[in-house]
UniProtKB/TrEMBL annotation:
<dbReference type="InterPro" id="IPR037768">
    <property type="entry name" value="C2B_Copine"/>
</dbReference>
<dbReference type="InterPro" id="IPR035892">
    <property type="entry name" value="C2_domain_sf"/>
</dbReference>
<dbReference type="InterPro" id="IPR045052">
    <property type="entry name" value="Copine"/>
</dbReference>
<dbReference type="GO" id="GO:0005925">
    <property type="term" value="C:focal adhesion"/>
</dbReference>
<dbReference type="InterPro" id="IPR036465">
    <property type="entry name" value="vWFA_dom_sf"/>
</dbReference>
<keyword id="KW-1003">Cell membrane</keyword>
<comment type="function">
    <text>Calcium-dependent phospholipid-binding protein that plays a role in ERBB2-mediated tumor cell migration in response to growth factor heregulin stimulation.</text>
</comment>
<dbReference type="Pfam" id="PF00168">
    <property type="entry name" value="C2"/>
</dbReference>
<dbReference type="GO" id="GO:0046872">
    <property type="term" value="F:metal ion binding"/>
</dbReference>
<keyword id="KW-0677">Repeat</keyword>
<keyword id="KW-0479">Metal-binding</keyword>
<keyword id="KW-0539">Nucleus</keyword>
<protein>
    <recommendedName>
        <fullName>Copine-3</fullName>
    </recommendedName>
</protein>
<dbReference type="InterPro" id="IPR000008">
    <property type="entry name" value="C2_dom"/>
</dbReference>
<dbReference type="GO" id="GO:0005886">
    <property type="term" value="C:plasma membrane"/>
</dbReference>
<dbReference type="Pfam" id="PF07002">
    <property type="entry name" value="Copine"/>
</dbReference>
<dbReference type="InterPro" id="IPR010734">
    <property type="entry name" value="Copine_C"/>
</dbReference>
């Protein structure tokens, strides 16, 4: 909606996006033209694919349509506004001041654009059901049967396609299968009358399974509360054709439970007010090299970011859209600190215990850069000034992760209600030296609302890091197994060397390290039975103009 335009006009809103890896704005969508209005409410909606791991900048331009020409240059430009898709989603509705062409700030005389985000409803329910069998046919010569179920849905052409297969229950005629969870979209395409065929087989090691029987039903029948006992006769069509009236069935299948539950998405929780908090942890061990050397991983070069700065920027620039106060703590580990020169594995990089937070991602970069400048000063002049000054901080070692993980865990434990979710970004160049303690800390943290991202920089052997990333084998420590996978490890060099021409390394890195966060987030909420709060329906959140998006 555009408000308070200078005079009545025939406005149209044009949406531009920056596709992944593209630095140029590309036209994406045009609304309809609203005639003779200075307060238009556009009916046409913009459909976009939301990706948490990308920044997804958006620019809106308003034109007064003066003719039937499709060339925007033939129409009067009224103003522009910009933001990111993440900002719209995190606030629900945003109010953007319109800027005139070439200006850097919004002006109320040009009006406002109000933008709201809404997730498309795509049958966001799942069916939860449990089945058991009674007196099924005996199929094995030396035993009973090894029954399992297959659930099929009817297609528009009248055929059936498989949507789920249960586990096999060995040597029984009265099996009880584990709970089955199937999205309604997958189960019946949202059509509760669509025919479902449930087939019971006896498992055989040869792969040629023996049919016990089958029955047909639909979601409407299965959720019918008037049917207290949902018992289905298992019918084998071959036996029915041969035995006819004398055939009484091949046992029974009982539907013991059927519940439809909503499937909540990452966007549901964000729109309900859940905050994403990010803590940065930076490796200050000696293996990074002296920061005054251009070979050092910590070398600060004006106009070119080092790998630590790129990792901070890639994650911070996205996460700050989901943090209302945009204040980030920055931890360091593996350095010797004054006054006694003891090695610390958990210190604030801005050296302030009273105010350890950095404002926005730019503040994080400045705190890191200031710390490195102290380090350069220390290394270059330590021999001259040692008698007069205590070094601010010195690179040391070893590489211990457990302290910074437990630091964030303490805060995450206070927000088990799902109102906040914590991300710890560890940037390191070394081989981890406290593997046992780190594994234990991660296992303990797997019950908390947090995720750990590890970015490996340099040429060290990161094999141990891969073990922490429990994608294939769940991490365990002290006899306990992680309740969920909360670690994502990404080697920095892989993002740089496998990148696509024209795509900035920070964009590739962000995609790699943040892709699993929504899944880990949802897994925590689902595991603890936390449902999202209703979206905030108060007045739109005001967003000032983004100067980085001014030029198109």
């Amino acid at each position: 909606m555009c408000k308070d335009l200078v005079s009545k006009s025939d406005p149209m809103c044009v949406t531009f996006v920056r596709p992944f890896g593209n630095t140029n704005w590309v036209e994406y969508h045009r609304t309809e033209t609203v005639t003779n209005s200075h307060d238009p409410d556009f009916v046409s909606k913009v459909h976009m694919m939301y990706r948490f791991e990308e920044q997804q900048p958006i620019r809106f331009e308003i034109y007064d349509i003066d003719s039937s020409s499709t060339n925007l240059r033939d129409h009067q430009f009224l103003g522009w506004a910009s933001c990111t898709l993440g900002q719209i989603i995190s606030k629900g509705t945003v109010k953007l001041p319109l800027c005139s062409q070439g200006t850097e700030s919004g002006d109320t005389k040009h009006g406002f654009l109000i933008v709201a985000a809404e997730e498309l409803s795509s049958l966001k329910d799942e069916a939860i059901m449990t089945f058991s069998g009674q007196k099924l046919d005996k199929k094995d010569f030396f035993g009973k049967s090894d029954p399992f179920l297959e659930i099929f849905k009817a297609t528009e052409s009248g055929n059936y396609v498989l949507v789920h297969r249960t586990e096999v229950i060995k040597n029984t005629l009265n099996p009880v299968w584990k709970e089955v969870c199937i999205p309604v979209r997958k189960l019946c395409n949202g059509d509760y009358e669509r025919s479902l065929k449930i087939v019971c087989y006896d498992w055989n090691s040869s792969g040629s399974h023996s049919l016990i029987g089958e029955f047909s039903t639909n979601v409407r029948e299965m959720q019918d509360e008037s049917l207290k006992q949902k018992v289905f006769t298992c019918v084998n069509p071959h036996y029915l054709a041969r035995k006819k009236e004398s055939y009484k069935g091949s046992g029974q299948i009982t539907l013991n439970k059927f519940v439809l539950k909503p499937i909540y998405t990452f966007m549901d929780y964000i729109k309900g007010g859940t905050q994403i908090n990010c803590t940065f942890a930076i490796d200050f061990t000696a293996s990074n090299g002296p920061p005054y050397s251009s070979e050092s991983l910590h070398y600060i070069c004006p106009g070119r970011m080092n790998c630590y700065e790129q990792a901070i920027m890639s994650v911070g620039s996205i996460v700050e859209d989901y943090d209302s106060d945009k204040q980030f703590p920055v931890l360091g580990f593996g350095a010797r600190l004054p006054p006694d020169g003891r090695v610390s594995h958990e210190f604030f990089v801005n050296f302030s215990t009273e105010s350890p937070f950095c404002s926005r991602v730019q503040g994080v970069l400045e705190a890191y850069q200031n710390c490195i400048r102290y380090l350069r000063f220390t290394y270059l002049q330590i021999f001259i000034l040692l008698k007069f000054f205590s070094p601010q901080v010195q690179l040391s070692g070893p590489t211990n992760f457990a302290p910074v993980i437990r630091h964030v865990s303490k805060f995450a434990a206070s927000f088990a209600d799902g109102s906040n979710y914590f991300i710890l970004l560890i940037i390191t160049d070394g081989v981890i030296t406290d593997m046992a303690e780190t594994s234990k800390a991660i296992v303990e943290a797997s019950m908390l609302p947090m995720s750990v991202i590890i970015v490996g920089v340099g040429n060290a052997d990161f094999e141990e890091m891969e073990k922490l990333d429990g994608d294939t084998v769940a991490l365990s420590a002290g006899g306990r197994r992680a309740t969920r996978d909360i670690v994502q490890f990404v080697p920095y060099d892989r993002c740089i060397h496998t990148g696509t021409a024209g795509i900035h390394p920070t964009e590739i890195l962000a995609r790699e390290v943040l892709a699993e966060i929504p899944y880990q987030f949802i897994e925590y909420m689902k595991m603890h039975g936390i449902v999202p709060k209703p979206p905030n329906t108060s007045s739109p959140f005001y967003l000032p103009p983004d100067l980085d998006m001014m030029v198109r």
